[in-house]
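PROTOCOL LOG
Step 1. Enter all chains and additional molecules of the complex.
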Amino acid sequence: MQMLRSVHDPVGTATAVGFAVLGVLLIFQSQRMSAMGSVFPITISAAMTLLALVLVIRNVVLGLRGITPKPASGGGEGGVSGGSNLRRALFVALMAAWIALLPILGFYVASVIAFFAIMIVATHERLSPMQIAILIALGFAILTGFYLLMANVLLIPMPRGLFF
Amino acid sequence: MSGKRDVREEPATESFPLPTHCSGLPMEKLVYLFDALSVMNLVLALGGVVAGILIGALPGLSATMAVAVLVPFTFTMDPASGLIVLGAIYTGAIYGGSYSAILVNAPGTPSAIATTFDGFPMAKRGDGALAVSLATLASVVGGLVGALMLMFLAPPLAQVALAFGPPEYFWLAVFGLTLISALSVGNLLKGLIGACFGLLLSMIGIAVVGADVRFTFGSQMLVGGIDIVAGLIGLYCIPVLIDLVATRDPHLKVESDSSGFRLGESFAIVMRQKVNMIRSAVIGTVVGILPGAGGSVASLVSYSEARRSSKTPENFGKGEPGGIIATEAANNATVGGGFIPTLVLGIPGTPPDAVILGALLVQGIKIGPQLFQSQGSIVYTFIFGLLIGTLLMLPVGLVVGRYAYKSIVAIPKSALVPTIAFLTVIGSFAIHNNLHDTAVMLTLGVIGWVLNRAGFTPSPIVLGLVLGQIAEQGFVQAYLIGNAQGNVLGQFFGRPISLAIAVFAILTLFYPLIAKAIGAARARKSETDTTVESRDADA
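Step 2. Run joint prediction.
Step 3. Record the structure below.
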């Protein structure tokens, strides 16, 4: 544990170990394929494993020298740090439940339930009854409008379950 | 509508009609211009552009879908009018993809992937209106360049499609992948690992050569592979939503000086970036000609070139206007470029071109090198219609874009998050009317968020996913051909076009190092000169 703490960029290093393991696993998987089907996967898996190991070694060496990681650069791609992890987990769980319920309840009904549940998770301030009414009306307008566009204009067969 | 017109049959030349076509028949072309300017054609072009923009702006709804849905309606129109509607929808949809890329970091179409690199950072810092205006101007110029090249240079440019074989496609994909060096400033290793991961994701399912079932781990869901659009929505949009629910902060900053479209500022930037814009439009047209390459490859290659030739490459990926201009000029130029092999050779350059090719055949139009002579009235009226549709994109795009930006800024987070989440679900489902794509979208989104936390940004993964199939198919086919000829290396390095692309790819990849070395050498030289001058002065 102490060793892990002393590693430069521990999260990145642990992920690189994961990539190296995945690369080895995929190389073994590729052995069962035909020569033509396996040449590219083996090459790329080997490259990923090699690069991941280089990253791990680099981070261990930098950690031993006591060099701390620089803040991430590269513009707009860095995620937001801080905030509520509970809300994040709830959002992901609701999205998964939404997709699971689509064939059971039908597209529209499942979407209404999930839409308003996510709305609650995304709301950080107390809302007046008027604001709540506006948000509910807006939600139904968006859901109904897009559903009708998909089902009746673009003629996409929407999933049907117990309802529609 | 002008009603059904007789197709003007003109004597076809026996040889390849390059000289006649290039020299052109100005007066006759003017007649076609007036045909295209009929009230009905203008209304159809306007309607097509608006419909295309709205459909393209929704992630998951592609230009192909928009064109395919509306093809049956065009059968009741005369051929030129029908083609004008389809062309306007197509060009509008490619442009519309930039809205969601800029405003919610979700490319509406794969062509707009590179628009997210600088568009979203600009919107986040409060320059969303400027980004939308730049995207509009660049899209219009790119579209015009593509359409003009279609009008004046179609037959010779169609030969480019025939000159591109598997090794050229392979090197083109590698050229696109060199963008990783630009997108991973500060940690190239992580960028390369992410790209490998994306390439491996692109191999899931049935192999393009050999038909092996790969990396499905026994899951039926993965046999069809990972759809690029589902991957894009997941990797770009879901991480933004996960972070959006966690804090009170607004999605985008509001401009302190909300001065409308910021057109003056946009024109000034576009004028400064005119070389970048024209070069990107030409790249877009040429890549559009290549069957299967399309707007995503064109925009990535142009972005890479724009960054390589920029005086401030370090600003790319952080909200550099030149990045948006390169991407949007290139992807809209692919519309005109894609029509070149479609009309001249009967080989569709992009998926929407394939749908339009079907519509042309139903209308009884004979595709081929003689088309511009034998059915010039339809072809030229259509090309003028495409030019008019592209010009109409300017006012329509600015108004819709401004409205979209204001709506995204004004809408409370409580409504914005579930609305974008709904669009991700409906958009990923609509790709193949399949919930598996929706599940893949969410899974990739969560993986993308976790990897982003560890410093593995989504763009290299997306690059690998988008370019993987093109790279693999090109590599394996070139290897097979080279092996059969007993000259594998000659396949990859012995053909002039593939060699040129390979050199550009290597230059782009190592450009930061080369530029650094040149800068250091210049600094040393000027230092030496100063020392010598001071010694001379002392003497």
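Step 4. Note key features.
Chain A has six helices and no strands.
Residues 35-64 of chain A form the longest helix (30 residues).
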